[in-house]
Amino acid sequence: xxxxxxxxxxxxxTILENYxxxxxxxxxxxxxxxxxxxxxxFLPGDSLLIAIxxxxxxxxxxxxxxxxxxxxxxxxxxYTVNYYTGKALGFKFxxxxxxxxxxxxxxxxxxxxxxxxxxxxxxxRFIPFVRSFAPFAAGAxxxxxxxxxxxxxxxxWIWIVLLLxxxxxxxxxxxxxxxxx
Length: 181
Fold this sequence. Notes:
Layout: H1 2-6, H2 12-19, H3 23-36, H4 45-58, H5 64-89, H6 103-124, H7 128-140, H8 145-180
Helix pairs in contact: 3-5, 4-8, 5-7, 5-8, 6-7, 6-8
């Protein structure tokens, strides 16, 4: 199962062939899981999005606009769930007797997210491990929800549209080159 998840982008044509239109739901759940949980950082978000864009350029049953919308919603919902998870559980990991998680760390996190939270949420979309951890830290650090949501929506839109667009363009270019040669 882990091997399947790690090499998912290579299996997209097979998934499309076997599940048809359900590919939208499958990919929605994968992007939601990666962005919605600190523990799903190993999922191939960036490469998967590029591969999905390429698939949209070659498969007649998968449309770029619908895929953009579905994955954008998945990424925003995932970050939102991860934020609220951090808000609810963040302090539970920090206590005076902990060797790793000290209460002073949560205070530093609060100050950091007050000053740099928006930039972090925006840029974190493009850094694999940070993408899964940043919204949790924002919630634990009590980043302002409206500010978090603004950067969550903006970052999610840029991340999805940019990477799907790169894949779509590359897929079209490869199709053109294959036709020409």
